[in-house]
Amino acid sequence: MAARRVALPAADDLFRPTSDPAEVSGPRAVPAPKAEAEPAKKQPSGRVRHDEKMTVYLTSDELLELEHARLTLRKITGSAVDRGRVVREALAIILGDLAEHGDASQIAERLRTS
Fold first, then answer.
1. Please, what sign has the CA dihedral across residues 8, 11, 15, 18?
2. What digits encode the pLDDT tens for the residues 46-85?
3. Among 91, 85, 105, 114, which Cα is nearest to 39's?
4. What integer pLDDT is reported at residue 37 of this predicted model?
5. pLDDT in tens, 4-46
6. Between helices 83-101 and 60-77, what is the axis angle to 10°?
7. Residue-number span of the structural domain to which 105 is assigned
8. Does any domain span residue 13?
9. Which intervals of the chain are annotated as region Disordered (predicted)?
């Protein structure tokens, strides 16, 4: 019996751009910071295609807590909530708190004591 050859994708297929080149017209615009008198409400990106990726390592207990939170939120909200969305929502909350309270924010306090 002859060995079966598997067709692999070409390098062009593996390294193709993930966005339409017509949409990308130079460097990304950075929004101007809001006035200090009116702290910005951080909003998560929600259910959109995400072009950037970050890897976070968790302990088994942290992962179980995250999964438990996801299931609890699914029960409360009645909608399918994935772990990435839970993390993006939590990130928006903590970044909003940091923008509003600065040195007195929860994240600053927790990082100061750890």
1. negative
2. 666 778 888 999 999 999 999 999 999 999 999 888 999 9
3. 105
4. 46
5. 777 777 766 666 666 665 555 555 555 555 544 445 566 666 6
6. 90
7. 53-114
8. no
9. 1-51
On whether the CB atoms of residues 74 and 82 are closer than 8 A, the answer is no
Report the C-alpha gap between 99 and 38 in whole angstroms: 10
Instruction: Identify the pLDDT of residue 7.
Output: 74
Give a yes or no: residue 77 inside a domain. yes
The residue type of 55 is: T
Amino acid making up residue 28: R
Q: Are 99 and 39 in contact (CB under 8 A)?
A: yes
On whether the CB atoms of residues 79 and 62 are closer than 8 A, the answer is no
- What would the two tokens of residue 89 be? 């929502």
So what's the pLDDT on residue 5?
Answer: 78
